[in-house]
Amino acid sequence: MRLLGISGSVREKSFNRGLLRAAVDVAPNDVTLSIYDISEIPVYNADFDGEKQPEVVRNFKRAILESDALLIATPEYNASFSGVLKNAIDWASRPLSSTPLMDKPAALMGASGGPSGTIRAQAALLQVLVSCGVRVMPKPGVVVRHAGTLCDDTGLLTDEETRARIRKQIEALAEFSSGLNGGSL
Ligand SMILES: Cc1cc2nc3c(=O)[nH]c(=O)nc-3n(C[C@H](O)[C@H](O)[C@H](O)COP(=O)(O)O)c2cc1C
After folding, report:
1. 13, 36, 55, 131: which is deepest, by most CB within 10 A?
2. Using one digit for the tens of pLDDT, what is the confidence trace for 111-168?
3. Domain that holds residue 95
4. Residue nearest (by alpha carbon) to ligand 1 atom 29
5. pLDDT score at 111
6. If you take atom 4 of ligand 1, which residue's CA is the nearest one?
7. Is residue 184 predicted with pLDDT exceeding 60?
8. Separation of CA 124 and ligand 1 centre (Å)
């Protein structure tokens, strides 16, 4: 399975990128996870949508299309998810008739430095993704509180218990994704 990891924080030592870096480490052998850098995606402008979509946006949409599922790690900004992530989703959601987000399986995770651990950010992100046609896996989720105590000074998640939860989430996402492609009696 090809997973595309997207971090809603683009800072170098981001805890959320650190969750995805840990996911790369703990992913089962039959899963490849590439982390996509959304920092180069420009601010959404409808004047440059459709045929005029910038190359960097096309590349992002192609990466989504070619993946089997998304693993999205979001920070919490002012009780929601980050603007940089919303901006990337808005581009990817266009045009509605052919968005690569449609029916794409996804799992959500998030880390914050405080006690709320991105609960509100993930709830807001869920609402947006569902409206774009993304099939968000209901559980297990990964909510990382007080991330500073669980990550090293590069932002990498080092806490073994949390890394094990991420592995379980990836395994569940693989099962969830295959279940979406036709069930059986
Ligand atoms: C503009 C802004 C708003 C924030 N709002 C919240 C918040 O509502 N809840 C929370 O738990 N943390 C909040 N934080 C703290 C972030 O969760 C924390 O900086 C986190 O480390 C960001 O993720 P990152 O490490 O992946 O960059 C906020 C940070 C910023 C910059």
Report:
1. 36
2. 999 999 999 999 999 999 999 999 999 999 999 999 999 999 999 999 999 999 999 9
3. 2-180
4. 77
5. 98
6. 77
7. no
8. 15
CA 74 to centroid of ligand 1, rounded, Å: 10
Residue 180 pLDDT: 81
Nearest protein CA to atom 31 of ligand 1, as residue: 77
- Contacts of residue 166, defined as CB under 8 A and 6 or more positions apart, other chains included, come to 19, 22, 23, 26, 109, 142, 157
Note whether residue 138 is domain-resident.
yes
Among candidates 124, 29, 114, which has minimal Cα distance to 72? 124
- 149, 24 contact by CB (below 8 A): no
CATH value at residue 14: 3.40.50.360
* Tokens 């039959």 -> residue: 30
Q: Ligand 1 centroid vs 140 CA: distance in angstroms?
A: 22
Identify the residues whose C-beta falls under 6 Å from ligand 1. Answer: 9, 11, 14-16, 75-79, 112-114, 116
